[in-house]
Amino acid sequence: MSINAYEDIILGSFANFLALSNKIGGDVATQAQFVKEAFDAQFAFLKVAAASSAPSNADLQNLLKPTSDKISTIQSFREKNRTSPFFNHLSAVSESVPALGWVCVAPTPGPYVKEMNDAGQFYTNRVLKDWKEKDSTHVEWARGWIQTLTELQQFIKQHHTTGLVWSGKDKPVTGGASVPPPPPPGGLPPPPPMMPQADFSATGGVGDDRSALFAQINQGADITKGLKKVTSDMQTHKNPGLRSGPAPYKAPTAVANGTKSVTAPAVNKPPTFTRDGKKWLIEYQKNNANLVVENAEMNNVVYMFRCEGSTLQIKGKINSVVMDSCKKCSLVFDSLVASAEFVNCQSVQMQVLGKVPTISIDKTDGCQMYLSADSLHVEIVSSKSSEMNVMIPKGTNGDYTEQPIPEQFKTVVKGSSLNTTCVESLG
Description:
Residues 175-210 and 244-265 have low confidence and may be disordered. The protein has a seven-stranded mixed sheet with strand order 3-4-6-8-10-12-14, with no helix packed on it. By secondary structure, it is an alpha/beta fold. The protein has nine helices and 18 strands. The radius of gyration is 27 Å and the shape is globular. InterPro entries: Adenylate_cyclase-assoc_CAP, Adenylate_cyclase-assoc_CAP_C, C-CAP_CF_C-like, CAP/MinC_C, CAP_C_sf, CAP_CS_C, CAP_N, CAP_N_sf.
């Protein structure tokens, strides 16, 4: 029954997701093929679990390796295609596909899948927002992926409530050695963690710690037998000298080969300014105030990565621009079809001369946005960011009114739901 139920997901909501991915095509279809291979690998693993008894930790690692490798491939594909026009699609899947690691989670694999589903919600919401008025196929695609993970959670709740069930009697047959996942692409941040695998070394790992924890909890009243008695010389009210508290913490000085170790400086790579088809790649520029993108077309994408103290001007109307891991940089552009995005940036500025539908700010500290009279209907989406200010034009004399974007929120419980409101600054 468990195998049939999982097959129903593959032939139902997941098959619909694959069909919509192929309809969209491009990077979405390519990544969907990797996702299909990951689900097929897990399907084969579940068949082994249904016909076998629980294996040793080493054998379990080998059995999980095909699924783990596919998850690594999916996440690496997303990192290698950060300038893709479907980057939100790739990120939605990449952030949530570790849900397939539920087979390593106990005793709550169902809620773990929901956590992974929620982890990708930031990007699925972007897809829904960006495409709801352009192409309903993308909207159905996002809903299809969410539905697949939702059905996976329901499947786990029904057949593997407290963890993966091994239903057979014989030990599973395994082969091959475990190989660590490939390193992340050079120059890009590492991908999110993959499957939450336990430490399978002989000295014990996460699984052993969990087992020990639950064994202690199950002792009931006997759990207090291991506690030490507090004697009179340990009581602070009888010994004032014990009330002084701990000394202030001082970070230890690392010493290597008799000398103090120094943090290695960031690797400096040569600056690049290239065009690859529809993509403009601007990387590792430092203190360059004359970066200009000209003769760009409406379907072009500009990607600015690891630049510092530089200014980029985009002439003409393009699709979108992404500023990733930049510091003290400025961006000036005419108009965008889709959005301007700031990710992992520090102290950046942006000015739009024409129109921009959406501005996205993620993990950024310090972002000044100068709007034009034609861009007052812009939607600004922010997450894990601070010091964000919007400059709204006032009149025609070039003056601006500065408005901060809220960073603090207050949440109260109302019945069975939550109500969240912004906390206004009193400064």
